[in-house]
């Protein structure tokens, strides 16, 4: 499947990101650094020709707050629940340090798969692919770290996930076009 041109933003740092707590479908507000992350994304976007782009955002407060700072050029910012973060079930609100940390190549991603009553990556993949099939033109997405990873993997493939980081994407923008991903900082 071919996909339209995408710019993907992860929300800025939140209070819970700063203290290493699992958020999932819960929310915490942006920190001062998170507001600066979003402002930096706005600077990047202002340097682009976004004529004809649609703007879609996760309905989570931290993503909406980021969109409000980073995307003042948007005529409208639509929300879609399929862009929300992975559900972490019983681990929502818990500190990562108190949770089991698997020994794997990417322990943070493995943690999301282990979360009791969590959504799991396969379910996130289904919903983001459904969202991607519903858009019909170039789009700016404001979403979350894991959701961004799953979208980028769906559009570009596993090469999009080189150098994984649990906090990757805050303050930068991913550009996906014609099967190529570029990180804009």
From TrEMBL:
The lineage's top-level taxon is Bacteria
- List, alphabetically, the PROSITE patterns matched: PG_MUTASE (PS00175)
The protein's name in its UniProt record: Histidine phosphatase family protein
Question: Source taxonomy lineage?
Answer: Bacteria, Pseudomonadati, Pseudomonadota, Alphaproteobacteria, Rhodobacterales
